[in-house]
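Subject: Predicted fold for DUF8040 domain-containing protein, 128 residues

User T.R. writes:
Posting the sequence so we have a shared reference for the thread.
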Amino acid sequence: MVRVSVHQIARVEHLQNLRTRKRQPGVLKSLVMATVLAVMAGVFGTVGSMTDHTIKHDSILTGQAWVNEVLHGHPERCLNAFGMSSNIFMRLLVKLSMSGLCDSRHVSAAEQLAIFLYFVRVMIMHGS
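User M.O. replies:
I've generated the structure tokens; pasting them so everyone works from the same file.
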């Protein structure tokens, strides 16, 4: 019968632990590199998306001129601003005018309706 001392068993376990530790730095290096690359990709992706913006609200017009530009410009712009096509906007303006909506001293009925619809559209988009 072979006698094995506790010291010899501890020595074998210690050597096995050393072999395992030698393999771990390679795994740890790979994990660290993968983490660093993932973080860098996220940072560069975020910075890239922040710098590649296309100007959307570039009109210098205000008031009635802006309303006219939106109504007579690209159809999608009217949908984005007021939530409806320019034809529906004009029909709604006629109905409201027949019901009593009229120009004030400084703001036309079309501007009043545009301001209201724009406000409602923004509140819906932001969930307020």
